[in-house]
Specification:
alpha/beta, 8-stranded parallel beta barrel, 11 helices, binds 2-phosphoglycolic acid
Amino acid sequence: MADRRPLVAGNWKMHLLTAEAAAFCRRLAPALAGRAAEVVVFPSFPLLPAVAAGLAGSPAAWGGQDLHPEDAGAHTGDVSGAQLADAGCTWALCGHSERRHDHGEPDELVAAKVRAAARHGLAPVVCVGETRDERRAGATWEVLARQLGAVAGAAPPAFALAYEPVWAIGTGDTATPETAQEAHAFLRRELAALLGAERAAATRILYGGSVKPANAAELAAGADVDGFLVGGASLDPQGFSDIIGVYG
Ligand code: PGA
């Protein structure tokens, strides 16, 4: 994986309560000393203060699972990039498939969110990935190229890309290391075409979709796999630490 620093991100989705988040941080923080990988967790918005308190002074960062494209305004239920930054976030997830599918977020909205993140100094983790039907129909490359093409111009240099095949998320049906590497290599070639070879070589491409301690090492062996976006397995501090530890 060239000289890219591995990045392991935990997406807690709509799980955990404040006391559980605090307990998680108490377990995780001491396990991070000397780890090679950069670590970030994405808790639900109400948990951000507990996570900020629990991870302060540790090498781990935290981010928002979503953000509104505008900086403030009459948008009930939404959270702005300014509010995330105010909560100590340095990252934001953009375009997770559960946002794209549950909330009907189109590519243009994902791009607007990436721009909003950049305005507030938040590094976006931009998620792309095909559904099972799209893969079966032979449309994987077209879907990935479209999703990446929509956001690449908006992405700040610090962004990371996450390849998350929708059929692998929460299903236990992890992509094989070969399938993941093939998609990551495709995405890096697309990045090179869109942003130039230098940025393509510097951008971390994470794999997400049923990553577990048991399969992380073989997935990490892919030359273009630069880390993970972990859902279910990131809720267990020991399992999450074990995945981080794959990188030494
Ligand atoms: P999973 O989720 O690890 O539970 O499959 C990954 C994700 O949605 O980011």
